[in-house]
Amino acid sequence: MELDELISSKLLKNWPSFLICLGLFWILKNVIYKRSRGPQRFTLEEPDEEVEDLEDLEDELQPALEEKPHVAFVPGQNLNPNGAERFYQLIQGRRSIRSFRSDPKPDLSVIEDCIRAAGTAPSGAHTEPWTYCVVEDAELKQSIREIVEQEEFINYSQRMHQQWVTDLRPLQTNHVKEYLTDAPYLILIFKQTHGLSKTGKRKRHYYNEISTSISAGFLLCALQAAGLSTLVTTPLNCGPALRSLLKRPTNEKLLILLPVGYPKIDCTVPDLERKNLSDIMVTF
Ligand code: IYR
After folding, report:
1. Which run of H or E residues covers position 181?
2. pLDDT by residue for the chain (284 residues), tens digit each?
3. Which residue has the least CA distance to atom 1 on ligand 1?
4. Which atom number of ligand 1 is nearest to the Cα of residue 160?
5. Distance (Å) from CA 62 to ligand 1 centroid
6. Cβ contacts of residue 126 below 8 Å, gap of 6+?
7. I need a surface site. Which of 30, 124, 217, 258 has the fewest CB within 10 A?
């Protein structure tokens, strides 16, 4: 019997073990390949311009905060029995607004108070890893609009999955973003992926995205309390260009962009319903 005939007859007889070996080889190959590529990322996610090198952080161990004795906690309005109900009444009236009046323009001091409130949010190891950029300048708003519309055109036509575009249809959105030049203020919220210590070395910023998102939530509540309207936008693929436009450092990554002001008189909103308490809350 020829050698190749011998191999093929053995393979044919032992085909179940051959298949098992092939399967094991395939699994092993995939595990090794996945490991070599590092963690998977959502393909539409913006690539970090700068890969964080954790080894390059502060080498001497230093607590993020000064080690001081704790102080007594003085409760504020914590005992208000109607507080939650009143807050619910206020916040349930909030809607995402996409059509803004250029005037009247709210006082900058009101925006400052809202951002002050946002700055009271809890953060990982109290690192406060956020930067709020407030844009009032018309030319700058125009440049922001151009960057966003250019990317959103590609997003809607190529990057976003057909299901995503379909899901957005009831909201009547598209790549044209008039609110970016109409709204009297744009607030660009950046998360800081790391900070700088007193000695100028990189300082770890724990849970910087969660912390900044919580802070942004506080801002939404404060704006609502101030009688202002806004829209949470997350302009896909615009982060680096907007960061350079505003000359922000590379440790700051754009998380959210909010147009802020008053709605146009004829402004409409989608006819949405909210989930019931029983749909969002489970009691044990
Ligand atoms: N960023 C786009 C698309 C968009 C995405 C989601 I998710 C929305 O809830 C709304 C819009 C835009 O702003 O048009």
Report:
1. helix 179-182
2. 555 564 555 655 676 676 676 777 777 766 555 554 443 333 344 555 444 555 555 567 888 888 999 999 987 766 788 999 999 999 999 999 999 999 999 999 999 999 999 999 999 999 999 999 999 999 999 999 999 999 999 999 999 999 999 999 999 999 999 999 999 999 999 999 999 887 888 999 999 999 999 999 999 999 999 999 999 999 999 999 999 999 999 999 999 999 999 999 999 999 999 999 999 999 99
3. 235
4. 3
5. 41
6. 64, 65
7. 30
